[in-house]
UniProtKB/TrEMBL annotation:
InterPro entries for the chain: GHMP_kinase_N_dom, PduX, Ribosomal_Su5_D2-typ_SF, Ribsml_uS5_D2-typ_fold_subgr
UniProt organism field: Enterococcus florum
Protein name: GHMP kinase N-terminal domain-containing protein
Start and end residues of each GHMP kinase N-terminal domain: 54-123
Annotated coiled-coil segments of the chain: none
């Protein structure tokens, strides 16, 4: 029996997201929390989620393989990523499914080929890139690859609250991002300087400034308390899921993590953010296991 598996990291929201040029752009970073999609020979035992099913169908169509072949293979999705919280679970599932299906048939898709399939299904995060990348998430019309892979930790604050990305991106929210375009220019400038200087402190500042702007669009409960905690312990910054519900406390010194976790556990915000996990930045994109 033949079996192949592909793995793709998720994210903790975005470092920044806002209006640049003629549309919204974002910069995501991967974390060491993954979606794994396996394809094996055998009659389908259960149907995967609709987005994975669509990714599988589009992949075989792209490869010129008969859809009849799908009747003789089973798709398994094992994900550590929560759904609809802004952790790129859909992008990770879709990308891993594309590469797993291609590998099952002895093929390998390029990043751009996978991105094209992802974008044909939904808005897509920039976690597939091997470094921080400014990305136009709706059509992929801009890919500003930085070549920088800053290494840092993130304490992910995850509530029970969920929000579907596509439901969030209404005409109203698009208009709100557009209205912030002049202020977001400063965020983008800081990000660009951070990239040029390889300055992780400036990167954290840019992330916090983007998160502050996002409070006007999608407010996070206890946000000011999270920011105060970040400042108290002199962390890199705070980043958020701009169309989701998670918050990240960005940390560059591993030895800071225990005291930050202790502070989080005893703070009132813990009642809202019921799950707290520590992860590390990850830029591996989608890979075969």
């Amino acid at each position: 029996m033949r079996e192949v598996t592909a793995v793709c990291p998720g994210s903790c929201g975005e470092l920044l997201q806002g209006w640049v040029g003629d549309s919204q752009k974002l910069v995501s970073y991967g974390i060491d929390r993954f979606s794994r999609v396996s394809v094996r020979t055998g009659e389908p035992s259960e149907k995967p989620n609709p987005k994975v099913s669509e990714a599988v169908k589009k992949t075989v169509q792209y490869l010129g393989i008969s859809e009849e072949q799908l009747k003789h293979m089973t798709i398994f999705v094992q994900s550590d990523l929560p759904i609809a919280k802004g952790m790129a679970s859909s992008t990770a599932d879709i990308a891993a499914a594309c590469q797993a299906v291609a590998a099952y048939f002895g093929k390998q898709l390029s990043r751009d080929e996978i991105l094209a399939i992802c974008l044909a299904i939904e808005r897509t995060d920039s976690i597939l890139f091997p470094s921080l990348t400014l990305f136009e998430q709706k059509a992929g019309s801009l890919q500003e690859i930085s070549g920088w892979c800053p290494d840092f930790y993130v304490v992910v604050l995850e509530p029970e609250e969920t929000l579907e990305t596509e439901a969030f991106h209404s005409q109203k929210t698009e208009a709100l991002f557009f209205q912030q375009r002049e202020r977001f220019c400063e965020v983008y400038r800081l990000y660009t300087e951070a990239i040029q200087e390889r300055n992780i402190q400036k990167l954290g500042t840019a992330a916090l400034q983007s998160a502050l702007l996002n409070q006007e669009i999608l407010p996070k409960p206890f946000f000011s308390e999270v920011v105060e905690l970040s400042r108290t312990y002199r962390l890199l910054g705070v980043n958020v899921a701009h169309s989701g519900s998670v918050i990240g406390l960005m940390i560059d010194q591993q030895e800071q993590i225990p005291e930050v976790l202790k502070a989080v556990q005893t703070a009132p915000l813990r009642k809202w953010y019921t799950k707290v996990n520590v992860h590390q930045s990850c830029y591996q994109g989608v890979q075969l296991a």
